[in-house]
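Exam revision sheet. Question 4 asks you to relate a sequence to its structure. Input first:
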Amino acid sequence: MQEVYLSVNFKEAVIIKPSILILGTDHFSEQNNGDLFMTDKEDILSKTSQTEIRDVINCLREFEPTKVALEVLQENEEALNKQYESFIKGDYTLTINEVDQIGFRLAKDCGRKKVYAVDWNKDEDGIPDLSGLDEWKDTDDYKAFKMIAEEIVSESNTYKQKHSIREFLLWMNDPQNVLRGQEMYMKLSLVGGKENPAGAVWTAKYWYYRNLLIYKNLVSLIDSNEDRIFVLYGAAHLHLLLQFIKESGIFDVKVPSDYLG
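Answer key, structure tokens:
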């Protein structure tokens, strides 16, 4: 008896998900955000810098965001949008902050009527102040943390001096540099003693918690699978935000090199 084989072609179902593009950035201004280590600041309002930022905006417009999410405390969203509305009307002078220079300009160019504040950053009971880690400044763990932090800042300063803002943003978002930033936090988590593991407590109860809440806020922006959410955040957040977003399975995750490369 001849065997008969049936060949069945199954068309793979296409699942449409909301898209998200996270751009990690340096902070353009000397904002007081609790950072222990900060890069040198350049003249963002210079003619050269403004031309380079316009280049970045023109590239990012290709993502066609339906929403622009910014590193601003959620409770300040109303005030943020009053500034944004004034900017649209031509009554607001952009500050040097990246929220204005990239966030506002991209949102306006893409015809967005508002922007979204998605940050959380509060003092919580039981979370040590990073400045208190000086108690362990003579330990090997603290020295290892400080060394990698200073190396990252030094390399960032050197790179940005020799490259355009678009090139610098690409460099900051390179997976190897993102992973290096996470390595710094892993070294920080080792700082402290058995009775007071301050670094681990800060990393788990503040840093991971903060980024989980940011992730939660980003998910809450979804209104439909057609949404395309652009997120602008300090590059230090990249590893965790990307981890949470990719592992959620909720988003179609885009990468900056697709647009800035």
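Marking note for examiners. The radius of gyration is 21 Å.
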